[in-house]
Write a structure and sequence with these properties.
205 residues, alpha+beta, OB fold (Dihydrolipoamide Acetyltransferase, E2P), 3 domains, 19% strand, hydrolase
C-alpha cells in the first residue's frame, strides 16, 4: 500500500497531478488538482490511496490526510465509487460534509453529482457517528459558521483554491485580486461556485 508520495510536482492537469520521485513519474488523480498550484515545480507530499482492482490500479491523492481518510470511508458506502467520492471531496470540506451526515441532511447530500436520496440515506446510515472527530471545535470563538456549515476558515480556503484555479486558466494576479474582493462578500460557496462566480465577474471587466 502506498501511503504517500513525496517528490517534485511537475504537472497539473484537470483531473490529476504528476509527481516525479526516485526517477519515477506518478500520475495521481485528485479531487481538485489546482489546490496544488502554489507547489508547481516544488517538492510536495501527497497523501495517496492506492485503489486496486483486478482490471486497474489507480492512485488517488489528497493534500490533507483527513481528505484521504474520508475518501476511504466513502468507498465503503454502497453506491459510492471512486468517481463519486472524488466529486464530493472536490466540492466540500471534511467538517462541512461530516456536519451534514451528523445532522442527517439528506437534502444537502443530494446536491453532489450522482447522489440520489437513496444513496444519501445510505451514507448517513453507514457514516453517522464514525466521522465526528473531524467536526469543528464548537469552543473556538473565532470560528464563524456560514449557511450549510461553512466556517470562515473554510470559506477563505475555498476562495484561495478558486483564485489559484483562475490563475491556472490564464488570468493574471492583478485580475484575480480584483474579483477576489467580490467573492469575499459571498456568505457561502464551494470552490467550484467561487470559480464560476470569478469567471462571470472577469468576463464583465
Amino acid at each position: 500500500m502506498i501511503a504517500y508520495i513525496k517528490g517534485q510536482l511537475t504537472t497539473i492537469e484537470d483531473t490529476s497531478i504528476l509527481i516525479e520521485a526516485g526517477g519515477l513519474g506518478y500520475e495521481i488523480l485528485c479531487p481538485n488538482p489546482f489546490r496544488f498550484q502554489e507547489s508547481i515545480n516544488k517538492e510536495v507530499k501527497v497523501h495517496t490511496y492506492h485503489y486496486v482492482r483486478e482490471d486497474q490500479q489507480t492512485l488517488f491523492g489528497f493534500k490533507k490526510k483527513e481528505d484521504k481518510q474520508l475518501f476511504a470511508q466513502l468507498l465503503n458506502v454502497s453506491g459510492i465509487g471512486p468517481k463519486g467520492a472524488l466529486a464530493i471531496l472536490g466540492t466540500v470540506s471534511v467538517p462541512e460534509f461530516v456536519s451534514a451526515i451528523e445532522q442527517e441532511d439528506d437534502k444537502y447530500l443530494t446536491k453532489f453529482p450522482g447522489v440520489g436520496k437513496k444513496t444519501a440515506r445510505q451514507m448517513i446510515l453507514d457514516l453517522k457517528g464514525k466521522l465526528i472527530v473531524w467536526l469543528p471545535d464548537e469552543k473556538n470563538e473565532d470560528t464563524i459558521f456560514y449557511q450549510d456549515g461553512l466556517t470562515s476558515q473554510e470559506k477563505r480556503e475555498h476562495i484561495e483554491d478558486a483564485s489559484e484555479a483562475l490563475k491556472a486558466l490564464g488570468y493574471t494576479e492583478k485580475e484575480v485580486k480584483l474579483v477576489r474582493a467580490e467573492l469575499e462578500k459571498a456568505k457561502e460557496g464551494t470552490v467550484d461556485d467561487f470559480v464560476r462566480q470569478g469567471l462571470q465577474l472577469l468576463m464583465k471587466k
